Amino acid sequence: MIKKILIFIVINFCYTQFVVADFDVKVRTAILQDYHSGEILYEKDADKSIYPASMTKIMTSIIAFDLIKSGDIKLDEKFIISEKAWRLSTSGYSSMFIMVGDEVSVENLLKGIIIASGNDACVALAEGIAGTEEEFAILMTAKAKELDMENTNFANSSGINDSENHSTVRDILKMSKYLIKEHPEFYKWFSEKEFTWDRTGGDPISQGNRNPLLYKNLGADGIKTGYLAVEKYSLASSVNRNGRRLIAVGSGFESKNARSRESSKLLTYGLTNYDLVNIAKANIPFYKIDVWLGKKDFVIAYSNQDIYKTIKKAKKKLLKVSVKYDGPIEAPVSKNEKIATLKVVYDDELVGEYDLLASEEIKKVNFFSKLLKSLNYLIWGDV
């Protein structure tokens, strides 16, 4: 017999239900994602090729973070500053203002990249890790392929003018999500509003974070601005409010003010018009399922992954969840064995199907206990 248990999710939310008609953002290309569910809430020419400018520095940071995590480099390890790196601090680009021959720690270089957007720090870090910036760019592109950034190629570590340094906002989104998920302890640096560098041969230099959203009451905690004359203004941004995170990427804003205004508008749209529903938490008991001829009469089913769905606020009552299984399931039951299926339906359309697993082993009863259970069933039925 197929057992079907419908669980209607009814959740009270504190936001007002409000749906924006014909919503649009004044930018050449953009994308908005709900981090936990992975749902794309808005996109505009999201696969259009762009020059990522200083958003490139997200990948530069990721390469270093991965190596720190693996133990190949350390935060207090120091790299010697080359003339090539130093020249980028004298040519009008955004800089950390390092000097030739300085020995600068990986941590300071990373903060110079993340907070001050220093192109000189990018080159110094790249050379310290890979020997040359060209070799480092190969590592960056290889990582992009690993992250399924299908339309991305990196030619340098900073994002300064190079026709071979190209990407899309969809790919920048994938990169940003990886950064937040895999390196939460380092991602906190992207929310720091100021970095002071005790430079050699001069007074300390303090520089503010260029991300305009950090200075708004929006809940922004990253990520990275960009500008090139050919591309105009760009921004990868993220907000985290009440446990809900959104990531937005836009490129081709007409001005700094437009970048700030339209990015805020895009993130606010996601927060205002959608709610995140947590259907199941990974490895947390989810449902009790009857067991036949087992040493226990039931087993707890669980999901081995977090299950979230993002739903329009005006339509959240259309979300339904059901658990289906052949039951009662017959012992023996192995731990982590698939015993049921969780189905998520939205507006009568199946939007997700997930395995539910047994949380423990259930052994079969011995012969006499089995006989007694069978007799009871014949006499009294399924009780």
Task: Give a written overview of the molecule.
This protein is of the alpha+beta class and 383 residues long. The chain is 27% helix and 30% strand. The chain has helices at 56-70, 83-87, 106-114, 119-130, 133-146, 169-182, 184-187, 256-273, 367-380, and strands spanning 2-8, 29-34, 40-44, 78-80, 103-105, 194-197, 205-208, 220-228, 232-241, 244-253, 274-280, 285-292, 298-302, 307-312, 319-326, 329-330, 338-346, 349-358. The strands form five sheets. Strands 1-15-17-18-13-12-16 form a seven-stranded mixed sheet, with no helix packed on it. Strands 3-2-10-9-8 form a five-stranded antiparallel sheet, with helices on both faces. A hairpin with a 3-residue loop joins β8 and β9 (232-241). The two termini are 15 Å apart.
Strand content: 25-35%
The pLDDT mean sits at 91
Query: How widely separated are the two ends?
Result: 15 Å
Query: Would you count the extended β strands for me?
Result: 18
CATH architecture of the largest domain: 3-Layer(aba) Sandwich
Q: In one word, what is the shape? A: elongated
Strand order of the largest sheet: 1-15-17-18-13-12-16
Unreliable parts: 8-20
Summary keywords:
383 residues; alpha+beta; Beta-lactamase; Peptidoglycan synthesis regulatory factor (PBP3), Domain 2; 7-stranded mixed β-sheet; 5-stranded antiparallel β-sheet; 9 helices; 18 strands; elongated
